[in-house]
Amino acid sequence: MADDAVSSILTELEGLRNQNPTTPLPEQTLQELHALLQGAGDDAETMEPFYEALASRNLPVSSLTQPICAAMESGLGPGSARISLLACNVYLSLILAPDAPIFTLFSPIGFLSLLHSIRRFFKTRKVGQPDEPGSGSSSGKRRGGGRPRKSQRTNTRHCGSDSDFQALISVLKSLELVMDLVHLGRFAESLKFLIQTVVEIPILSLDSFPGSGGQYCKLTEVCSRILNKVLIPDHGEVAESAAEVLKCLCPIILSTKSPARNFALSFVKDTMIGLVEESDGVRKAVTNFPKYLAHKAPEKAEPRALAVESIMEIVEMMEHTAQIEFAEYVVKMTHGKCSLRLLGVDLLVNLLISLGDTLQEDGNSIDMEMRDLWSVNSLQALLNRCSDCNSIIRARAMSNLAQLIGHFLGNGRNLQLFKEVLGLKDGRSGGINELLRKRCVDEKAAVRRSAINLATKLTALMGGSFDADVLKTLGIACSDPLVSIRKAAILALSEAFRKFQNENVAMEWLHSVPRLISDNETSLQEECENLFLELVLDQVSSAVGGSTSVLCLLQEIFHGDVSPWVKKICTNLGKKNHLRPRVVLSLQNIIRESERVWLSRSLPIERWTAPQGAWFLLSEVSCFVPKSVDWEFLDHYWKLLDTNADGDGISAFPTENEGLFDDQNDFESHSISWADDRVFLLQTISNVSLELPSGPAADLAQKLLKRIEGFNMHSTEIKAHVKALTTLCKQKASSQEEADALVQKWVQQLLLEASRVLEKYISAVDSRTVNKEQNFKTTWSEGRSGSRRSKLLSRAYAAVYTIGSVVLACPSADTCTVVPMLHAIITSGNSNADLKLKLAKSSVSFKQIAPSLYIQGWVTMGKICLADGKLAKRYIPLFVQELENSDLAALKNNIVVILADFCVRFTALVDCYITKITKCLRDPCELVRRQTFILLSRLLQRDYVKWRGVLFLRFLLSLVDESEKIRLLSDYLFGNILKVKAPLLAYNSFVEAIFVLNDCRAHSGHTASSQGSRAESRLFSIRGNDESSRSKRMHIYVSLLKQMAPEHLLATSAKICAEILAATSDGMLDMEDQTGQSVLQDAFRILACKEIRIPTSRGATSDSPEMEEDAGDSSGVASSAAKGRVLSQAVRKGLIQNMIPIFIELKRLLEGKNSPLIGSLMDCLRHLLKDYRHEVEDMLVADKQLQKELLYDMQKHEAAAMAGTEEASTQAAEATARSVLREVNRGIATPPLKSLSVPKVKYSDGGAGVGRPPKELLESLRRRQPFIPEGGQD
Known about the structure:
The protein has 1274 residues and is an all-alpha fold. It has 55 helices and 2 strands. The protein has a two-stranded parallel sheet with strand order 1-2. α4 (62-72) packs antiparallel against α5 (80-96), α21 packs parallel to α23 and α40 packs parallel to α43. The longest helix has 43 residues, at 1184-1226.
């Protein structure tokens, strides 16, 4: 049988020799030859007849290898891959046969054909379609038609896949054995191609054998053994071979997670690093491999994170000296280009975390001083990157620093090193506070978020020694436009407040966090409530006696900027049943303890006051836990405070750093504190009135009414007394009707008494005026008359305030007795008052003799009008008239508040007066301007007022107001609220704003107006061509441009060209008018500013990209890129078709009039065409002269910029030379060389390095790090 096979094979070879030696050997002949070789095994005698038969027929061995190689290179027809594998197996079996002429059979070309055949097998084989005969597209249909059964298809696929896999494994195993016989050191290209092929097999096989884990493991195991064979000296220089293997594995290691990546990493860690001790060449290659991976790492976030993970897995397996070397290299990377710096900060944190503990545990293997040195250098490099010019690197560096802090907190030695680098040793704050101050207000949101996170982590290291500016910065961050940053700032401040009972921290927390209870984000409101409950109320509940920290906390809660938010927080917590009785009990104990300590020191009780803020917090909390308040406690302190209502008192608890029991020798008057305590005590009584006994409640109501009727209380007490009395009456009554009747009764009683007081005061004033006209020499301020007038005025003021309070408490009250008196007060001395009201008028001007009463009269009349719509309709014009004519800032401020309330209650009545109210935005008083701005902004947000007419244009001037507070409010309104609520407002009103701000009427589209509107337009304009006016207008324009979308910026440019530039060319805008010239000049400056330019891809470089860390899905990125390209094309098209023709025509017009605006036009055109420098000739083909002038202007501008730089350098050199000559003339000796300053290299973060870096560092940054180790060949 074997003789027949040999005869058949030889006959086929002879036929091929006579025809074409390169013709592929047929499949049947290959199978016969493969069977012959498999039957021979290790028996040399079996193959001897075959070789003898070859010789007898004069067939050389090459006649056998050539057709086999041709079969390996067979085409892509059906069954080609299977035939190629069969040819590969035959070829390798021939070489492995006993006593085979190896050097005759092996050739580089045949070996390359073998590797090509293996690659082709994976590329031509489709998943689920085994390469069997008849499986191609030319196979016939199955008898009976239709598709085969599912089980039949599955079995066919499975059998085909197994047969293909077995054939492939057989080839690879044979290749492994051939590596022992054939040394590839002389065939460099064959070795290189072998490495590349074997490395790619794990990747290619993922598509060929899906889901077959066992098969894939066998395949990668064989590949690993082949690559291991490569790393022996028989196959050439080991260093070069190892370098080539690692170079081929690099793309797989840097790819996404897959079995192929696991294979590559496993081979490097388990095999190559294991050979480091045996081969210096492998050691050099492995040492340089992490550096090579760093240079090849991708820039996108997720692939870069995988690259860092892969690098760290390899570095952790390396020797300690190699780890230190790589760490030093990473420090140098942080001074390289953008992508290397970003990768460097990610690697540094992993090196410090992963290697720091390892080196410390194995201290005998490395000098600890060297370990500390590289740790310090790494930390310093990471700290420097926090000030990098790239925002993403700054953010990553600070996030990594925060991560390191969390890791080092449990490691003593590393923690000390960390403190030393940050400058936190020995209680010093170092430069970390300055860094936090800058980064917490960084322009990039990601940087601000990372800085706040770093501040949170630093609380444990700083020991409570927070810098005041850092705390203030964190407080400002609580008002950041981004929700995530506000939340991070809240957590940072709360963490500091939780860990350190520091007065400064508590103060900043109370001024920054509670105000977020009014935030639009619900989650922030809930977080604010929970933190207040934990950090404030729980602390107050657990207070023992007069704890200094709790007293300071209560005092700060009572602050005017904090108390409104505390009220809202307590209300929300109470509605959710989160307030507990222990808070009320603790506050009562604090007040009792305060009184006890005061009396124990034998101090007069009339000078005692409760700790500031205690009564306030008790009044807010008691509303939701009324049963926890003791009536005896309330009764005792009401009697005490009511008895000493006219006395003075001071707090029993010292402030600042004085102890609770320190002596106080000086007593100061605190009547306001007594009044405040009575107000909050009355509010507390109102809250718990339902729980009061009926008898004491009735007595208390009588006392309250009697106190009110005296009209001798401070205004802050009147409202509290009225509210408490109203609540007691409602709780005392058995029904709602009875309660209303009781309230109506005492309200009418108070109104009648108040009218008598006012009538008495007005009569007294009128009589005194008559006496004065009869030449009485005494004045009101003299003697008893002055004292009596003062008391009457005080009672009259209290009566007017009481009228307003009771009307709000009982809107249905009859005010017919008090309205004439109030009318007489507010219209006194006013001849322009509405006479149709037919009410009494006083001949005396209360505005002159009693301005406080005059102002309060307007406020009370406003309260009455809120309760009476008919009265409001009659008096609203009078309020507006007084707002326009009054010169009292306090009165104008109150009238603006009243009109804002009217706008909510009677919108239609006030809407026609909104333009007159807006005139207060230009009032000389800052308070009036700010109050008007805030109230109108709220009305606009709630849609009681619409952004129509001149309202939006008048608001623009608030952007450049003299007051910084108003400017900040205005920036927030335009930048945050209007950008969301009315995104098209800035775009629709932009061109009109240019004319209004310049007060320009020179355009034919503007009609003549009345003198009054002309005065108003001047009031709301910034006329003039001086630098201050131009800069203010430009600031407004830029603020509006920042709110526009890119497509609106493009449309705005077109509108400016059409409505201003083209209008000037057409004669519609008068160039002889000064305001018209200002409009045109503003148009040029707007078109030239960077805010109106749409970013394009021109001139972009890949070296310093602002890489987006959170890029989102690829579809969104692609859509944004496509939109950017469309806009860029639209910009270019609009520039060529619309803008340049207008500029050409306008330039001719200005030249004809010899206008000085030609310079502004050329400067604007130069900025517009700056990105199209090489296309200027094509764009300006219609005006060759303008083309030449513009190119010359561009060259001149660039030359001037360069000359300015050279001139500055020359002046510095001349100054140095003059200094040296002066020293020489004085006889000063030349300083030694070591004392001279050395030039410093400026790094990318803007800092300067100490000394000049070594040449090797500069070279490594200038070009890519070569991967081939030292001593290797390129």
